[in-house]
Amino acid sequence: MRPLTDEETKTMFEKLSKYIGDNIKLLVDRPDGSYCFRLHNDRVYYMSEKILKLATHISRDKLVSVGTCFGKFTKTIKFRLHITALDFLAPYAKFKVWVKSGAEQSFLYGNHVLKAGLGRITENTMQYQGVVVYSMTDVPLGFGVAAKSTLECRQVDPMSIVVFHQADVGEFIRNEDTLT
């Protein structure tokens, strides 16, 4: 387990800023202690510094994971967010989308959100902006990228895609063997 390089940190923070903007500072400087990001086996983990000190006593080859997995770096050094980061993205999300109860199941099976299933969307959401997807009862379901801006969403037909699916809580069941 090692600290992220400057390039890795920049890449990861650029991806996070698409979803939570300047609220990244709130992830690191928390009132309940100091938190940090560490890289282990191409995966980025978020943990308190207390846990980090305890984890240093375990050898790298025996350590499976520590803290919360935020995502992983691909072989081309691109960062992919994992669904396990949703608990930290949801409270700080700048742009949100609420889906109707009939469209929840479709989203949780890995499908994009259609205009017909769109309940609400945050004002001034721009096209290709990272959004957190909620149920109408404010339960975070996953995250994606806005396919249309807020203004465009009002005028498109009901079968148009308004949010591209990236990750959802149904992945815990569908991909439980590969999530670590």
TrEMBL record:
Gene3D superfamilies: 3.10.450.220, PUA domain. SMART domains: PUA. GO terms for cellular component: nucleolus. Residues 95-170 form the PUA domain. GO terms for molecular function: RNA binding. Interacts with pre-ribosome complex. PANTHER family: CYCLIN-DEPENDENT KINASES REGULATORY SUBUNIT/60S RIBOSOME SUBUNIT BIOGENESIS PROTEIN NIP7. Belongs to the NIP7 family. Required for proper 34S pre-rRNA processing and 60S ribosome subunit assembly. This is 60S ribosome subunit biogenesis protein NIP7 homolog. It comes from Cyclopterus lumpus (Lumpsucker). The lineage of its organism: Eukaryota, Metazoa, Chordata, Craniata, Vertebrata.
